[in-house]
Amino acid sequence: MNRQAMVERLSAAPKSWDIIIIGGGATGLGSAIDAASRGYRTLLLEAGDFARGTSSRSTKLVHGGVRYLQQGNISLVLEALKERGLLRDNAPHLVHDLPFVVPNYDWWEAPFYGAGLRIYDVLAGKLGFGPSRNLNVEETLERLPTLETQGLRGGVIYHDGQFDDARLAIDMAQTAASLGATVLNYARVTALTKTNEVVSGLVAIDEESGNEYELKAKVVINATGPFTDSVRRLDDNDAKPMVRPSQGVHIVLERDFLPGDSAIMVPHTDDGRVLFAIPWHGRVVVGTTDTPIDEVSYEPHPFDEELDFLLTHTARYLTKDPTEEDVLSAFAGIRPLVSMSPEDDTASISRDHTIHISRSGLVTIAGGKWTTYRKMAEDTIDQAATLGGLEEKPSVTKTLRLHGYHQDASQFDEFAHYGADAPLLRDLIRSDERFDEPLHEDSEVKAGEVVWAARHEMARTVEDVLSRRTRSLLLGAQTSIAMAPRVAELMAVELSKDDAWVGNQTRAFKELAKGYLCRRS
C-alpha cells in the first residue's frame, strides 16, 4: 500500500465513483472493504491518518459488552459476540482470547456475576472464547497475584477478546486497497456538491500536494465518528446534532502492577462504567472514564478528575498503588454516541449504531463500537447501494480474511502482530544491519519497522509511526519523545525529505507527546 500509487489511482479513475466514503477510522475502513468486495468503485478519503481519532484510542478489547448485558440490551450483546467471533476468525494474528477476572469482595457478587457471565457464554454460543466459572481465593490470586487481598472472597473468570486497534485499522486499509478500493490519508473534504439539491459528490484537497479534486459519486457516506455533525453541516448548515460526544481516558502502567496473563474487570465504578486493567504489549492499560464533552478534536486530553479517578480506583484493587509518576502514558478517545437529546447520560446511551439519510441523500453512519464495525459497514453499504441505484450484491465480509491473516502468527515473536507480513518485514530488516537496531533501549521497535511503515503502510509523519504503526506513544510517552529524531531521519530518507522536515517533524511530535504525559494542572 503506497500513497503515491493511491494518488495515481485517484487521478486515473473515471469521473464518477459508485461510493465515496469520508472517514478512515474503523467504520469508514470497514465500509470501504464491504463496498469494494461487492465490486463497487470505492474511494475513501481521510483528513488525517487512518485511525488517527477514536479508532486508535480504544480499550483494546473485542468484546460483547458485559455492561450492555447488565443494561438488558441483549440484542446488542448478541450482535457483538457474533462479530467478536467472526473477527477472530478473519484476523487471528491480531485478535486473541484474554481471560478476565471479576474480583468478589461482597457475599452477593459471586452468585450474581457468575450467573450473568454464564448467560454471556450462552449468548456467544459456538463463537465463544471459553467458559466462565467461579474461582476461590487461591485461584483468584494465582491469576491476579497483585490483587488487593483484604476482604477478597474469590472471583469469576470469563473470556473476551483483545486486539491492537490501530494495527487492525492499517490491515483493513490494506485489505480495502487489495480489493480495488482507493484509500487516501491526508485528503481533507472541504465541501459537498449537489445536483438538483441531491448530494452528487464532493471537493477534497490533498494536504501534501495542495491539489484540489472535484469528485462525483452515486453515494457519499459520512463515517467520521466524533466529527459526524461537522460533515452533516456541509450538507445542511442547520442540521441538528446527532452525536453526543463522551471522553474516555486510559492510563498505561508498567507490567509489574499486573503480572500474569489475566485482566481485571470491575463491573460498576463510581461513574457507572466498567473499569478494566488489561495486559497489553508488555504494559498494563487501565480505563476507562465516561465524561461528556462539548468540543471534539483530534487530540483530546485527559481531565485532572479523570486521572484522579483512574489512579484512585486502580489503587483500590491492586496491592501496589500507582501514582502520577508511575503513569507511562495517558490517552483520551472520544466516543461518538448517537443521541438527539443533550440531557442524556452518556454512560447510559446505547452503543447501537444508527444510519441516517438526509433529504439530500447524504448517508451518515454513527454510533456503534469497534467490535461491530463489520456489521455496521454491511448495513451501511446495503442502504447506500439501494440509495445510489447500484446493482444489488450481497456482503461477503463474514468470511473475508483481512490483510495479514495468519493462523499461527505467534511464531513470529515480537513481529506477531504483523501476521503474514512478518517474514517480509524480517527480510527487510536483514537487508541492512542498521535496520536491526532498536530505536530505544526501553523499546522493542526496530529501525526497519519505520522503513516498512513508510514504504508499505502509508505512514507520512513521525506521529503516524510512533502513535499508530507502532504503539510507542501509548506505551511510553517519554520514551517515544526520545525516539522521534531517529524516526524522522529514517522517514526522511524514504520520503525524500530534507533536514528542515526532520526538525519540524521532531518538534511537532515532541509537542504532541507532551499531552500524553501524566501532568495534572
Low-confidence stretches: 343-349
CATH architecture of the largest domain: 3-Layer(bba) Sandwich
Average pLDDT works out at 93
Binned, the helix content reads: 25-40%
Quote the distance from N terminus to C terminus.
Answer: 42 Å
CATH topology grouping of the largest domain? FAD/NAD(P)-binding domain
CATH hierarchy class name of the largest domain? Alpha Beta
Q: How would a crystallographer describe the biggest sheet?
A: 10 strands, mixed
Q: What's the Cα radius of gyration? A: 23 Å
CATH fourth-tier homologous superfamily of the largest domain: FAD/NAD(P)-binding domain
**Which word captures the global form?**
globular
Structural class: alpha+beta
Number of helices: 16
Number of spatially distinct domains = 3
Tally of strands: 18
* Beta-strand fraction estimate: 15-25%
What's the gist of this structure?
The chain has about 525 residues and is α+β, with helices and mostly antiparallel strands. It contains 16 helices and 18 strands. The protein has 3 domains: about 180 residues, FAD/NAD(P)-binding domain (3-Layer(bba) Sandwich); about 160 residues, 2-Layer Sandwich (D-Amino Acid Oxidase, Chain A, domain 2); about 110 residues, Helicase, Ruva Protein, domain 3, CATH 1.10.8.870.
